[in-house]
Amino acid sequence: MPEKAAPAECRASEELSAILAAQKQAFLAASEPSLAERRRDLARLSGAVNARAEDLASAMNADFGNRSQHESYVAELYTTLSGIRHISRHLGAWMKTERRGVNRVFFPARAEVRARPLGVAGVISPWNYPFYLAMMPVATALAAGNRVMLKPSEFAPATAALMAEILSGLFPPEKVYSACGGPEVGAAFSKLAFDVLLFTGSTGVGRRIMAAASLNLTPVILELGGKSPAIVGPTANLFHAASRIALGKAFNAGQTCVAPDYALVPAESLETFAGAVAAAWRKSFPTLAGNPDYTAIINERHYARLSGLLDDALRKGGRIIPVNAANEKLDPARRKMAPTLVLNASPDMALMQEEIFGPILPVIPYGALSEASAFVNARPRPLALYVFDEDQSKVSEVLSRTLSGGVTVNDVMLHVAQDDLPFGGVGESGMGLYHGREGFDAFSHKQAVFFQKTPNAQGLLRPPYQANLMKILKILLRWG
Fold first, then answer.
1. Which pLDDT band holds residue 289 (cuts at 50, 70, 90)?
2. For the whole model, what pTM was predicted?
């Protein structure tokens, strides 16, 4: 009888384990990459992004069914190139050995900290920004001197295939390898004994990734999501706040981990704010169905999930206000969902219990500003927080009373685009930081090195102890 074929997950595991072993062997056999070599790798990567920009935008458009070309260029291509340039510009300073102080008892010794590559980095990237959230960790890991294995999302297959093609043309598989495939590949990938693993995605999947990585004691960097609130203060410019929140919620059709998930607004301003958000959406998107600037929902499953959230909110007393300026009939098969306001949102609604990740904005009224902070604090710590107010003392009050992964004041999402700011969550929204210097550090080991010199006083601390040593030790205790 013919032998049964091994299950797909087993085959994936064997193949990926072989690649990992080859990368680890190559890492150990080679000398630590120099600054010049790392910069060459980054230059090759940025050159390929420039050369294939249109192809990449087309691939992302194909994956979404319609992905705004402008959004792909701004949020995927420009941000990637800007981030790589920032890394390359500052890499020499980040790699420098750092001198540290030595306890005076040990003079004339010296001490230093060296940034060492960890070895092989694993990167699991999501579908919502399928290029940027894959390529920036890859570039950062290479800059830190590592080899990299990438698992892009199967929900963006065209982008994943093109990235694999680009990377294989730039680097041998023992340096950078892209593992395309479905859930069986992802499951096998997360179980590999990487030296460090970065995952970007949902909190629920992040828990499973961390559990799998723990079997190998692999350190993890988890960039998760959650419900990022926008607090509109009592003395905010209401129309500016509405415009910026509307833009952030509609960008990529709300499929952004740092999109404003819901808005907290002074009760007396709720109707005015909602009207201003709707007006901003109508102005930005006079049509929806055939509008190339308005991105589609990634797939049928996510479209159905978002539709289910609205149905649940309606059943529970929510006031649902879709904003469709041309009053078009939207074909569900095209997965264009009108940006939608939800008023009278209550805590028992599903859209107030899970990350929305779509163009739906619940608006919650509050009385005193402290109530808005308390509302945020009663929920898991968010990945991002947005505060709008013209009074700096009110902004400071919110920032001092809440904790989130990052903050943008009087706008949304822009802290992520700053190359010199760290990015990461806190609590259920993630752990670990990357981008810029923090990214280099996340993919490096800070190795402590102590250089002993002779002669030194260490002979006094070895048995047989001298008669007067205890007197010296008591003096040291007082000396500090």
1. very high
2. 0.92
**Which residues, in sequence order, are bridge partners of residue 263?**
230, 363
Closest Cα partner for 125 from 94, 101, 148? 148
CATH number of 8-224+433-445: 3.40.605.10
Picking from 79, 82, 101, the residue whose alpha carbon sits closest to that of residue 90 is 82
* 223 assigned to active site: yes
Pick the catalytic residue: 71, 76, 174, 257?
257
**Residue 93 dihedral angles phi and psi, to the nearest 5°:** -70, -40
Sign of the Cα pseudo-torsion (330, 335, 341, 342, in order): positive
Q: Token match 């609205």: residue?
A: 310
pLDDT tens-digit map of 104-154: 778 888 999 999 999 999 999 999 999 999 999 999 999 999 999 999 999
Catalytic status, residue 76: no
Of 71, 223, 355, 428, the catalytic one is 223
d(CA 225, CA 227): 7
CATH 3.40.605.10 domain locations along the chain = 8-224+433-445
The domain covering 229-420 belongs, at the CATH homologous superfamily level, to Aldehyde Dehydrogenase; Chain A, domain 2 (3.40.309.10)
Q: Is the pLDDT of residue 464 over 90?
A: no
